[in-house]
């Protein structure tokens, strides 16, 4: 039987973690002016967890029992480690619903970051299990867009493929690339059918894009990222880039996607011009989130 005293303890814990987390750590812009509260505001946590501020306020006040789905989104929003994950499920009396604790999904693994740092002039992105865009380099910003300018919950490769007009227009073979990305996420859905992040992503895309809704219902499958991607870039024109991926061996499900071209080819020349121009025009551009992002 649920214990309201535990709800109040959980609420106090959530508040403490909220106050200890900076906007930058949570993937939010710091905002202008002096902040009146330590850490994140309630509204910011509610936004990150995709719940109403009224419901989150009741959670902090210990007036309502959190559902397993809400706990999962709060774990991600507040960047809770494995011990904290177990603690909040116990306080909410949801241990039977608790998935296997996992490493933080919103943070690229250290090995991935080291590889990313070495890839100057080569567009590269660290992707999570559901194609969350966890980290990137300057060359990826030059090729695609400024991921750091997007709200953290919109930094998803599949979401951008279907809902971002500029990202979509960049792909000369958009349908092929979109179906491949969709198939990769479907494979993940078979491994983790109750995943709250995936459920929310699929629900949003099904409502907002007819192609996604139809293709998802067709049980599209694909786990391949290797091959060639063909782009039409507004600054340098056609780019035919080889795609290679490196899967992290630590069980996190993260992968590093790299795009390159033969140095002496027209695409190689265009890519070099594009990245050089970006470095000249944006010398202080923050392409990658800070380490605790």
From TrEMBL:
PROSITE patterns: HTH_CROC1. Residues 35-85 form the HTH cro/C1-type domain. InterPro entries: Cro/C1-type_HTH, Lambda_DNA-bd_dom_sf, MLTR_LBD. Gene3D superfamilies: 3.30.450.180, lambda repressor-like DNA-binding domains. It holds the Pfam family HTH_31. GO terms for molecular function: DNA binding. PANTHER family: BLL4672 PROTEIN, BLL4672 PROTEIN-RELATED. This is Helix-turn-helix protein.
């Amino acid at each position: 039987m649920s214990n309201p005293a535990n709800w109040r303890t959980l609420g106090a814990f959530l508040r403490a973690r909220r106050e200890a987390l900076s906007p930058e750590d949570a993937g939010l812009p710091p905002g202008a002016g002096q902040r009146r509260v330590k850490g994140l505001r309630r509204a910011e946590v509610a936004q990150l967890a995709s719940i109403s501020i009224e419901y989150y306020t009741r959670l902090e006040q210990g007036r309502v029992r959190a559902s397993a789905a809400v706990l999962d989104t709060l774990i991600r929003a507040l960047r809770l480690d494995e011990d904290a994950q177990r603690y909040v499920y116990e306080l909410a009396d949801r241990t039977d619903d608790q998935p296997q604790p996992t490493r933080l999904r919103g943070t690229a693994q250290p090995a991935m970051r080291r590889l990313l740092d070495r890839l100057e002039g080569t567009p590269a992105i660290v992707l999570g299990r559901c194609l969350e865009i966890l980290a990137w380099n300057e060359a990826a910003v030059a090729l695609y867009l400024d991921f750091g300018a997007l709200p953290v919950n919109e930094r998803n490769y599949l979401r951008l493929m279907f809902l971002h007009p500029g990202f979509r227009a960049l792909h000369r073979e958009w349908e092929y690339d979109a179906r491949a990305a969709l198939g990769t996420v479907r494979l993940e859905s078979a491994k983790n059918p109750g995943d709250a992040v995936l459920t929310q992503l699929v629900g949003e895309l099904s409502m907002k894009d007819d192609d996604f809704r139809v293709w998802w219902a067709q049980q599209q499958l694909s786990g391949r990222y290797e091959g060639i991607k063909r782009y039409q870039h507004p600054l340098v024109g056609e780019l035919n880039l080889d795609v290679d991926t490196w899967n992290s061996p630590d069980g996190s499900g993260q992968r590093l996607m790299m795009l390159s071209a033969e140095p002496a080819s027209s695409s190689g020349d265009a890519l070099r011009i594009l990245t050089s121009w970006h470095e000249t025009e944006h010398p202080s551009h923050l392409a990658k989130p800070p380490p605790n992002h």
